[in-house]
Amino acid sequence: MTAFANRRLRVLLAKLGMDTHTIGVTVIAHALRDAGFEVIFTGLKQTAEMVANTAVQEDVDVVGVSSLSAAHMKHLPKLAEFLRQKGAGDKLLIAGGVVPLEDIPQLERAGVQKIFTMGTETKTIVDYLQTWWAAKLAAEQSGG
Amino acid sequence: MAIPNRHPDNPVRDALTPERSVSPLTDAFNAWQQNTQGPEVAKRGERQTPFKTQALHWPVHPLYTPLDLEAAGFDYQRDVGFPGEYPYTRSVNPNGNRSALWTMAQVTGFGRGTDWAKRARFMLDQGLQGLILEHDLATTNGYDSDDPLAEGEVGRAGLAIDSLEDLERAFDLPFDRLKYLMSVCNAPQPVNLAMIIAALEAKGVDPKQFVLHIVNGILIEYTCVGRYIYPPKHGLRIATDCFEYMIEHHPNWAPISIISAQLYAARANPVQELAFSLSIALQHIDALLERGHSIDKVAPYFHFVTGIDMDFFEGICKLRAFRKIWARLMRERYKATRPEAMKVRVMSSPGTMSLTLQQPLNNISRLAIMATACALGGVGETMTTPLHDEAHALPADEAIRVGAAIQHIVAHETGVADTIDPLAGSYYVETLTRQIEDAVMTEIDKIMAMGGALAAIERGYFQRELAREQCDRNRALEDGSRKLVGVNHLVHAEERREIPIFKLADEVEAEQIERLQELRKRRDQNAVDVALAAVRDAARSGTNLVPPCLVAVKAYATHGEICNAMRDVFGVHHPDAQTAGV
Fold it and tell me: A102, B59, B457, B462: which has the fewest C-beta neighbours closer than 10 Å?
């Protein structure tokens, strides 16, 4: 087991554009911290580029976007693109909130890897991230 | 035999010491508990351990008796008194709802911004005299439509306002019939106020025959919802400028509402909701008093909007305690003397927080129960009802009709509004009202010890308290300790749970941006620059911001430009995670 393997998962939680509804992101932030993850919050009124910059500066593993406005189809593909441009395309980009099912395929094609829709329990998200993190660490260990 | 200490967190109960409890009623109560209730509980148990109120999680006892009131030192004249008289617990209105019912209102969205004037005309044709002017999120947050942050939001949640021209277009309304306009555009208030004043002038509206109501209780936005721009102390200064301008130039207008319901929707329990919103009101009042106004002049302008949740008695007692606490604060803290200063003005509303996306028809019964609680609690001046299908889409016509009918059913078919404050004297209601009052006063004292609401916001106290409630409530729903029908109880597994999102054509945004950019080309740029410099000067020097904003909007400086002029001086609010409570 390397020291690297003991590193805690670092998650950046973000709010994009004018969406200022914070209850969901607050509940998720606390649940992820309770699960032992490090959580960083961007604050409100962020552009996709601002979030991508923060993700790079903070060297996070996961970028999670809470979206409760209808502007997700504008912001999320842009965020995926900025992350790739900044050489951060390996970070896990996930989103949750009010996202209609019909929008999901397009968002997935744009590079959002998982979308948690309304009513998802916090445990589901924690489990998903733990599984992803374990797989990533295993891959890194076997790779190097 | 001693009465067990049934309520360790509650000082009211602590007063009931065994030594004092020597009345025959105490003996009878103890005998009942031991001989009659006790064996039943021993045999059948209780279906919950312990019983607690929904939001406050306060223990609910099996039985309330005169002993509870005695323990609390309840004094009829001091604690409740008479309607229309201090401390107004029973009603601020001397005849309750017997002379007239509360005003029945309904808040409905207007759909896309370009339809606003058309929709407003339609509502006026239905006999409404008042309208709510809702801006889109870009405008509410102080940005022009072509700002990158505004992408995808232009005209979506309300009217997009970039310049006075937009508002003049929207005000193509029959102002002979429109008597009241409420504006919910808080953070850019001097710009918003100036635009409305200028547009009304352009339409030749007599401001004395018309009431503009601005929400203006900006400090709430820093605790939840987040529609702020500048750091809180500058937000407060801006709100105070607007209040002062209005009472000086338009004393018949309504310069402030504290939207306490916003705290409720952010999961504040009744004690937090009242303590936070009241301490915020006190901060706004202190700012006005510092400018030399008297409490008797400014207090009557204060207005609150509160939400009533599904816990019937928490809601009823919250409304009763609200009236009494306001009266006490105004008299005891500020030495107000005018009755108008001590009568709290409240609009109450069944809450949206307990409405579920799942099984939406259930929401009609929830709304009826909450509306009944509002009525039993004394309502206030006005009640609004949300709509049972709000979570789903733009409200359907049927939902609008049902929403209006709920209030009429409560008012005309149940009799709850026919005698004033009908639950007064109930051992439980008076006990809970008093517990809420005491807890709110204690919480307000705590906030004052921090330096008041502004200081509490700056250090993130409210935000962290709300975050804790949000997480607790979510946990209770996830672990099933709180039951919500359709969500974690009586769930229909096959039910589709999706919210259709209103999709607005991209052309609306493109057209709005085109109009804005075309305006910037043809206006007198020099006049705009001079006007914006004057806004910066006022921001810096501390003179009232409304007059230079009036000049700027008339020169067709844009909404975002004027907000930016103030950003140049005030900076922007960007709390860290700790302060935001996230």
Answer: A102
The answer to whether B223 touches B276, Cβ cutoff 8 Å, is yes
Kindly report the nearest CA distance between residue B440 and chain A, in angstroms.
Answer: 24
| Chain A nearest CA to B50, separation (Å) | 26
In this prediction, residue B466 carries a pLDDT of 97
Could you tell me which of B276, B246, B271, B247 has the C-alpha nearest to residue B260? B276
- The alpha carbon of residue B251 is apart from the nearest alpha carbon of chain A, in Å, by 33
Query: Looking at residue A14, which CATH number applies to its domain?
Result: 3.40.50.280
Indicate if ipTM > 0.90. yes
Could you tell me if residue B158 is left (phi over 0), alpha (psi between -120 and 50 degrees) or otherwise beta? left
**Total structural domains within chain B:** 1
Q: Residue B124 is part of a domain; what is its CATH number?
A: 3.20.20.240
Residue of chain A whose Cα is closest to the Cα of B500:
A100
How many other C-beta atoms lie within 10 A of the C-beta of residue A118? 16
Whose tokens are 């397009």? That residue is: A106
Domain that holds residue A66: 3-134
Q: Which residues of A touch B576 (CB under 8 A)?
A: 41, 43
Please write the tens of the pLDDT for every residue from B266-314: 999 999 999 999 999 999 999 999 999 999 999 999 999 999 999 999 9
For chain B, what is the largest distance between any 2 Cα atoms, rounded to a whole number of angstroms?
Answer: 88
Is B152's Cβ below 8 Å from some Cβ in A? yes
Express each pLDDT in B12-24 by its tens digit: 444 444 455 578 9
Q: Is residue B501 part of a domain?
A: no
Q: Is B524 a member of any domain?
A: no
- Residue B562 gets the label, from left (phi > 0), alpha (psi -120 to 50) or beta, of alpha
Residues 103-132 of A with CB under 8 A from B: 117-119, 121-123
The verdict on residue B525 lying in a domain is no
- Smallest CA-to-CA distance from B346 within B372, B328, B321 is with B321
**Cβ separation of A71 and B152 shorter than 8 Å?**
yes
- The tally of domains found in chain A comes to 1
pTM of the predicted model over 0.95 = no
Q: Where are the alpha helices (DSSP H) in B52-96?
A: 66-71, 76-79
Write the pLDDT tens digit of every residue in B508-548.
899 999 999 999 999 999 999 999 999 999 999 999 999 99
